[in-house]
Specification:
Elements lengths: L4 E4 L10 H7 L5 E2 L12 H14 L5 E6 L1 H12 L4 E7 L8 H17 L1 H10 L4 H6 L1 H11 L4 H12 L5 H5 L5 E6 L7 H7 L6 E6 L6 H4 L1 H20 L1
Parallel strand pairs: 1-2, 1-3, 3-4, 4-5, 5-6
Length: 246
């Protein structure tokens, strides 16, 4: 049985962020990209995870290789905690098992206030720019504007719900420590959202790991260094499929 690849998008984006990855695997129908960007009814990362789990099982998916970008990684960890039997492999793509620090929580509160005060597009213009390395942002202004324009369609209530859920999520390092499946880490050395030293530190928590270190990328490796990310994801998925067939 083919184990599907499930790609979970992060905050300030939707399933479109995976277009280049999905296109590279086309016409493979076993690449699934759930979306929850516009949902404002989910109040915690656990609820996002359960919503994804219910969507996947409704499609007949029994196990999967789940790779989560940023907030998608938080969702993947929550799903793995509650439904460990579902996980054939787990990937944290510019993401972390650590809970927010008080400083980070305060920044998220300011972001929620900015959504109310400035509106989604003005908030996202600043937020999206910080997702990329300074060098990439300066050399690709049109691409960043396209990103902002696309995600500005996300309802303000959904943007605030996602920010609140991220802020209140618990520490899930024990999920990595207890993992009996392979874990992939993709780390951007110019990431402003997940500190590179913290991301590197957590790679020692799981027993069976592989890493991709992106020297030039910020928080958007699939855009900033797409070939390297695709190769790492493909190798990770193929490895799990081989091991699963034994």
């Amino acid at each position: 049985m083919i184990v599907p690849l499930i790609l979970l998008h992060g905050y300030g984006e939707d399933l479109k962020v995976w277009d280049s990855i999905k296109a590279a695997f086309w016409p493979n129908k076993n690449v699934i990209t759930p979306t929850y960007a516009s949902r404002s009814d989910l109040t915690s990362i656990d609820e996002y995870a359960e919503a994804v789990y219910q969507e996947l099982t409704a499609q007949g998916v029994e196990r999967g290789v789940i790779i989560g970008h940023s907030m998608g990684g938080y969702i993947a960890l929550a799903l793995a905690e509650k439904h460990p039997e579902f996980i054939a492999g787990l990937g944290l793509f510019h993401s972390t098992a650590y809970a927010d620090t008080e400083e980070k929580k305060e920044n998220r509160r300011k972001n929620i206030a900015a959504i109310d005060e400035k509106g989604p597009e003005a908030f996202l213009k600043t937020f999206v720019k910080n997702m990329y390395s300074d060098e990439y942002a300066e050399s690709h202004p049109g691409q960043l504007q396209e990103h902002v324009t696309h995600v500005s369609q996300i309802p303000p209530a959904a943007l605030k719900a996602g920010m609140q859920a991220m802020m209140n999520r618990p520490d899930r390092r024990q999920v990595l420590q207890q993992a009996n499946y392979p874990v992939l880490f993709i780390i951007g050395m110019k990431d402003k959202a997940v500190k590179p030293e913290e991301a590197l530190e957590q790679t020692h928590l799981a027993k069976n790991t592989s890493q991709l270190i992106l020297e030039k990328a910020g928080h958007m490796g699939m855009v900033e260094e797409p070939d390297e990310c695709l190769e790492a994801i493909q190798a990770f998925w193929q490895r799990i499929e081989r091991e699963d067939a034994l």
